[in-house]
């Protein structure tokens, strides 16, 4: 069983670890919020998010009054529980009637959606195909699941995937099912260093 740890560091930041491996903190969250902005700018109203985490992607989506429904798939109930009790800021999000949180693997939650029902699917469950925290998440970046995502999107619907690095392999897999596949570099400053995170995007034809 995975061990989920949330702690407040000496610098005041909240840090999430799973099995001792750093997942994220609340210091540099521009790429998490940009994931949401990308699909909002494309007009998304019904969105599925893989990974609640510290809630930044979900908060950005729900801040848009035009958004009608957000389904969040979160593997670890502890994260939802800690948001509910206020350890992670976001109890207000959980009270939003447009939000549905499902504690399960994102692959099962996407598969359970009706075909052509979603304007966008936003995946931020791991660090990308080449830096996995959970070995099982390799399948999230594989052809079977990308095909399942594409089927759940309405025509012109978008799939956006957060990744620590660009991945030619993932872009190739996405291009088998989606149009206009692209990798967007998001500049970030991490402990004083200028780096990039990446958002891989594609649109259903
Ligand atoms: C990097 S965090 C997500 C960050 C989020 N975008 C935010 O704005 O805070 C990744 C989250 O995905 C969850 N997760 C990992 N694997 C998953 C899976 N297969 N299905 C659903 N959630 C998963 C983790 O427990 C964690 O909460």
UniProtKB/TrEMBL annotation:
The membrane spanning regions, by residue number, are none
- Key words, A-Z: Polyamine biosynthesis
Q: Which InterPro entries match?
A: SAM-dependent_MTases_sf
Q: Which Pfam families match?
A: Spermine_synth
Top-level taxon in the UniProt lineage: Bacteria
The molecule here is called Spermidine synthase
């Amino acid at each position: 069983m995975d061990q989920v740890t949330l702690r407040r560091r000496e610098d005041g930041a909240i840090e999430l670890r799973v099995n001792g491996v750093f997942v994220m903190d609340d210091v540099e969250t521009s790429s998490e919020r940009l994931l949401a902005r990308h699909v909002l700018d494309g007009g998304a109203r019904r969105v599925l998010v893989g990974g609640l985490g510290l809630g930044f992607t979900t908060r950005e989506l729900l801040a848009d009054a035009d958004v009608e429904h957000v389904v969040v798939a979160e593997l670890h109930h502890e994260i939802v529980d800690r948001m509910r009790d206020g350890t992670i800021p976001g109890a207000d999000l959980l009270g939003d009637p447009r939000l549905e949180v499902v504690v399960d693997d994102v692959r099962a939650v996407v598969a359970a959606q009706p075909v052509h029902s979603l304007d966008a699917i936003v995946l931020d469950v791991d660090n990308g195909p080449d830096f996995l925290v959970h070995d099982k998440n390799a399948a999230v970046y594989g052809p079977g699941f990308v095909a399942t995502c594409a089927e759940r999107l309405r025509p012109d619907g978008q799939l956006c995937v957060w990744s620590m690095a660009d991945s030619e392999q993932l872009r190739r897999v996405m291009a088998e099912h989606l149009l206009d596949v692209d990798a967007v570099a998001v500049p970030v400053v991490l402990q004083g260093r200028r780096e990039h995170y990446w958002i891989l995007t594609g649109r259903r034809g």
